[in-house]
Specification:
Its EC number is 3.5.1.116. By secondary structure, the chain is an alpha+beta fold. The chain folds into two domains: 346 residues, 3-Layer(aba) Sandwich (Aminopeptidase); 115 residues, Alpha-Beta Plaits (2-Layer Sandwich). Helix content is 38%, strand content 22%. It has 14 helices and 17 strands. The strands form four sheets. Strands 2, 3, 4, 6, 7, 8, 15, 16 and 17 form a nine-stranded mixed beta sheet that branches. Strand 2 and strand 3 form a beta hairpin. Helix 5 crosses helix 14. Bound molecules: glyoxylic acid and manganese (II) ion (2 copies).
């Protein structure tokens, strides 16, 4: 395939340069001027793609987008369908427009920007990520894979490249589960999840706002339209490639520029509710209590125990939400609510942990004479494997660009986990400072980001010609 590409690309670029010189689109030129992207001459293209990333502009966009936040800098909080999310969406659509892409949005607000290829009837190559941000997180998670993808398109355009298959940048709705407890909402739906279509009819947020009311307030799902309209058929894309910060320390520790993801670990999340009698913190003596808060505390420790008992460092579990009702210092908790996240690269082992957590919840409720009023597995997703041909294309791109690279797995989940259900998938990781993520200290240098953008651009170019 590498041989075919190296023969085809110079040829294609040669014709592209000719056509760019003779048939320059004045609309595109004007948009480039507005966007502030330097319009570079195509003359340096010889036997490989000459890609330049406009680092200043990309950093400016990352910084600007981070200001659309409900918490103060350096933290970023951008929750699905909030005002800040809506402004962020407008910002992304504007940049898509400036890049000359044709824009479409679906019923839940997945946003698609397409650069039409010379053979537009072929399934396109897609890329993209998310820009929603969990409470008090950083400005790079997801954002690098959306703004970086748009810069990859700009870099390809500046180089004079003309795609055969169309190239599409997707901004996915709600990769983060913050508002409705459902991760990868947009990509999960795109991949055709019927259970999610049913669940969303009943889903409300912490303020009791329904999914449909929230979506309507952001301009989507106006008539509670059938969400199966979001589904995409297998084969709609010839490949999907996501650029993302690693969210772990390996690349930085080892001084490697690019991570080529071979598989994404299997995530699951669980919601648990306990109910007791509550009562006065002074008057109700210890033998008479059935404390829902202590049941939750005991279950949190049981989660840790079951995860550690798996004997593998690849098994992880987190109780990220623990709420007590009524939440007064002098009142015994009458209700408690936990949300548990557990993951593993081994699906069977992860499922064993879930089963043990369930058994513990039942036993704790019995021992403490509280009611286990709900034990709900919200999602229990299988892992995903990257596609061999996409891995090869990413390796080829890294080699061509002289960038050190290594194969690795993703312990975080991504929209790619679901895109893998309908398309050959691959992911490009770049280093991030100390592996920090989901906190304000999250950081990737613009040099590392630019490397990722170039690998993405070249990978898409290659896949577009396949
Ligand atoms: C994604 O945000 C994850 O939690 O892995
Ligand atoms: Mn995240
Ligand atoms: Mn992410």
């Amino acid at each position: 395939m590498a041989v075919k590409f190296s023969l085809l690309l110079p040829l294609l670029l040669f014709f592209s340069v000719i056509s760019a010189q003779t048939n320059e689109d004045p609309t595109t030129r004007t948009m480039e001027e507005f966007s502030g992207y330097p319009s570079e001459p195509h003359s340096c293209i010889s036997d490989s793609l000459s890609l330049s990333v406009d680092k200043d502009s990309l950093q400016k966009q990352i910084d600007e987008l981070s200001t659309f936040s409900d918490t103060p800098a350096p933290s970023v909080t951008r929750i699905l369908y909030s005002d800040k999310d809506v402004i962020g969406r407008r910002y992304i659509k504007n940049i898509m427009g400036l890049s000359g892409l044709s824009i479409r949005e679906d019923a839940v607000g997945n946003i698609f920007g397409r650069w039409e290829g010379s053979e537009a009837e072929l399934p396109p190559v897609a890329t993209g990520s998310h820009v929603d941000a969990i409470p008090y997180s950083g400005k790079y998670d997801g954002v690098v894979g959306v703004l970086g993808a748009l810069e990859a398109i700009n870099a390809l355009k500046r180089s004079g490249f003309k795609p055969k298959r169309s190239l599409e940048v997707i901004m996915f709705t709600s990769e983060e589960p913050t508002r409705f407890g459902i991760s990868c909402l947009g990509s999960r739906l795109m991949a055709g999840s019927e259970p999610l279509v049913r669940a969303l009819k009943e889903t409300v947020d912490g303020q009791n706002i329904s999914f449909f009311d929230a979506a309507r307030s952001a301009g989507y799902s106006k008539d509670q339209e059938d969400l199966s309209s979001v589904f995409m058929k297998k084969g709609s894309y010839s490949a999907f490639v996501e650029l993302h910060i690693e969210q772990g320390p390996i690349l930085e520790d080892e001084g490697v520029s690019i991570g080529i993801v071979t598989a994404i670990a299997a995530p699951a999340s669980i919601k648990v509710d306990f109910e007791g009698n509550g009562g006065h913190a002074g008057a109700v003596l210890m033998p008479s209590r059935n404390d829902a808060g202590l049941a939750a505390a005991e279950l949190a420790l049981a989660v840790e125990k079951h995860v550690l008992d798996s004997g593998s460092v690849d098994t992880v579990g987190t109780v990220g939400i623990l709420e007590l009702h009524p939440g007064a210092i002098n009142s015994i908790p009458s209700k408690s609510h936990l949300e548990i996240d557990t993951r593993d690269i081994d699906e069977k082992r992860r499922n064993t942990v879930i089963e043990r957590i369930h058994q513990s919840a039942i036993a704790i409720a019995k021992n403490r004479r509280v009611k286990l009023s709900d034990f709900k597995i919200v999602n229990q997703d299988p892992p995903a494997l990257s596609d061999k041909a996409v891995i090869k294309a990413m390796e080829f791109a890294s080699q061509q660009l002289n960038l050190s690279h290594k194969l690795m797995i993703s312990r975080a989940y991504h929209d790619s986990l679901f895109m893998a259900r309908i398309s050959p998938m691959g992911m490009i990781f770049i280093p991030c400072y100390k592996g920090y993520s989901h906190k304000p200290e999250e950081y990737s240098s613009i040099e590392d980001i630019a490397n990722g953008v170039k690998v993405l651009a070249m990978t898409m170019a290659k896949l577009s010609l396949d």
